[in-house]
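Appendix C reproduces, verbatim, an entry submitted by the partner laboratory led by Prof. M.T., so that reviewers can inspect both the input and the predicted structure.
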Amino acid sequence: MIRMLRVSDVLEGLSCCCLAGSSHAGRPVKGGYAGDLLSWVMAHAEKDDIWLTILNSVNVIAVAELTECACVLLTEGVTMDAAVLQRAEERGVVVLQTGLTTFAAAAEMEKLLQRC
């Protein structure tokens, strides 16, 4: 039986923390996208992707919602202002944080995806 990766698995597998949207940690993760140019992410990220970025503005929440990504993973220890995290909660966007570089986080995500 094929098991689907979930946001909760990413939380555990990458030892990251959830900054917003923890009630949506059951969402499926089908792939990933790493990018820091919002218009490029809007054009290329797919539904149920985990989006790896160092961007932390309210526009990230809007793009995450528009692309229907599974969650946003802030890399390199980046965080978001309380007002941005509040918007994420209101909009149902999961925001995770890790101290890993984007490259290292992407490599670990690939390992998690290969296990499922």
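The mean pLDDT is 96. Additional entries are available on request from the coordinating office.
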